[in-house]
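Task: encode each sequence below as structure tokens.

Item 1
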Amino acid sequence: MRIGLSLPHYDFSLLGREPISFEQMAEVATRAEHLGFDSLWVSDHFVYSLARYGGAEGLHGSLEPMTALAALAPLTERVRLGTLVLCAPFRHPAILAKSATAIDLLSGGRLDLGIGAGWYEDEFRRFGYRFDPVRDRFRVFEETVEALDGLLPGGPVDLEGRWVRFRGAFNHPVPAQRPRPPIWVGAKGGDRALRLAARHADGWNTVWRWTPEAYGDRVRRARELCEREGRDPSTLRLSLGLYTVVGEDRPDLLARYAAMQRWVPGVIDREPLEAFAADTLTGTPEQLLERLARFAELGVEEVIVAPAPLPFALPDPSMLDLLASAVVPRARSL
């Protein structure tokens, strides 16, 4: 199993280092590559609020994902670079295909393209995007994934959708990866999303709190839908993002978790460690490896760690060293 890292790219991401800068994110990215992490991931928001997690009101800025990955490409050599995930309504798929191709070429074929339907209503409205009902946003999502599936390999593509209309569209030059960079459907795992993944994507990703039991139920459903679509279920790739807190031993784990509780008031203040650990990647290195093994048995090829109780944050950089020394190398044999 591979271990990826969700990169800090929001104003809240690094303790005492606001506002976020590209240099700060790049420092973490190059360090993570040096430590042996397999991939680096960024998300897609104009602004972000911690209120949905129980944190304080207020908006936090963010780096734009595609330009950030393009800038990281020449600064890294080995790690894969991915979006977790792009918001489909924010970009026309023709523009997205060209951007993705450029990043894939810049990185020598290291791009993973994760895409989702979008969910943050306040963000849509602040920036002039229509926040349609879920069914309509999902329609945009479906058409975007279908369009990219056909366009990224080069085309030509004809597509007559409600939002996407291609007539002989093509994408030249083509990406470095052939037939195209992997496309990941990012979603909780409802039937409509899993069906979309079965039809047009390389894999399915979901985040940030999952027990192996609940995740296993959705994996079984994904495989059923692959069979209905005439696809070999074993070809649908699986990746998973998980909040992560690791300690060298029990006392160290308790101390790190208490520090996380103080770091962002309102998020996990009243949640005991055992409750948090139930559906996250939390514990000593041995406990993390046991949990990773259970996900590996379900077919997960990569777990993307968020070393915090929030996504794309790194309040305790020393946790990367512990993960890199005690978890990442041993996970490869799972």
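Item 2
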Amino acid sequence: MASLELDGVTKTFRDDGDRIVAVDDFSLDIADGEFLVLVGPSGCGKSTTLRIVAGLESATAGDVRLDGESIADRRPQDRDVAMVFQDYALYPHMTVRGNMRFGLEESTGMSDAEIDDRVEEAAALMDITELLERKPAELSGGQQQRVALGRAIVRDPAAFLMDEPLANLDAKLRAQMRTELQRLQEDLDATTMYVTHDQTEAMTMGDRIAILNDGKLQQVGTPLECYHEPANLFVAGFIGEPSMNFFELSLGDEGLTSEAFTYPLSEETRAAVAGADRVVLGVRPEDVDLVPERTDAHDYEVVVDVVEPMGDRQNVYLTFEPDADEPETFVAAVGGMASVRAGDRVVARLPEEAIHLFDASDGTVLRNRSLDAVEETELRTEPE
């Protein structure tokens, strides 16, 4: 395998004379053997970036390097990368074996025996040996995806490129395939660039995640870094389900204030937001505590609007304005056995150590909760 570098990659299109920037000065280094997930909303430039690396699109500016050597001017078949597509792209008239052989037959001088050995090895790795003589129409979606992955594996490329490969699978199979892809990546020690709009895939699969919006790279870091220490308001709102709660407030002598509530600040936190007029306070749903009564300066009486039972937890939507036609709500994630119903009056605590603060004018982060403050849980096994 090899490292993969994108250096100032830019891609623009023309639409009726208008210049559209699909990818804007994108720079990123992916280490040898790293699983990097590129995540963002639909239309943000993820797939375009991946296609530029594959050679299916040409960059307007910038360079792509594989193991330190530029591949920007190489044809796709000469780039030593293998791509897995969302729609599998299997040849319907060929068997599984034929699909997996085809790329090697067309692009290498390997003998039939060598190709057969590669195909058998990849089929065994993907647990599809018994499917080799079937055609794609005889396979389930999950089996077709395994074939598509196997076809990439036989190439033994320097890097794998995966464009939302699990998007067409049902939820249960998608979860299963996430786990299998992680195991496969560990077995192959493969350099992988994986594109998805599904933040669950990004959080659970990536060694690091790169978050893209409107063609611009917003943040690169481990999943926990991006979750607990977002670089800006967009990242904070995009990563996490349910999304982070946001309140736009004014900075005054008493702290942060709005028509609904006032949030007192410690001197340390006030120093972090000094100079800002309008501030967005963010807090994760799991950090909103429902408590029996007000005993803290950051406790607020609210009304339960909607309760979403999820089994292991409940998403409880709360509002300061229960009588409004369209009340603004925020979410608390509480235990699945908690007794709470719509219409209940409860007390919500927004702990200061858990809040994030952003400049309302441009979304830049002013204060994050620290990863050092996030309690770590050690897994221990009792001796037999």
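Check on item 2: The longest helix spans residues 171-188. The first strand starts at residue 4 and ends at 15.
End of task.
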